[in-house]
Amino acid sequence: MTDNGSSGTGTTVWIIDTAKNAVVGSMTGFSVPNTLAVTPESAHLYVGNTGWHTVSVVSTHTNTIKGTITVESGPRAMK
What is the pLDDT along the chain (79 residues), one digit of tens a residue? Predict the structure, then answer.
């Protein structure tokens, strides 16, 4: 789950335990996170940073940002 902020300036991604349907933490360091994609094995989460025109690569095992991919604009959606 992402927090875009009331004026589109959010920096937070909330960590959810899907077995409990509960928020268990949060991560900061994003810029208007608005789209998410997870790898089939659930090892990585891709977070679209509209404010920076980047995609952050997050390890779901450590909840840390492992890398950044620069994109032309957006991103607005991921598959």
Answer: 555 555 456 889 999 998 999 999 999 999 999 899 999 999 999 999 998 999 999 999 999 999 999 998 888 888 7
Estimate to the nearest angstrom the gap between the alpha carbon of 73 and the chain centroid: 16
45, two tokens: 């989460």
Secondary structure (3-state) at 32 = coil
Is 39 exposed, middle or buried, given 0-12, 13-18 or 19+ CB atoms closer than 10 A? exposed
**Burial of 56 (C-beta count, 10 Å sphere; 0-12/13-18/19+):** buried
pTM, full prediction:
0.84
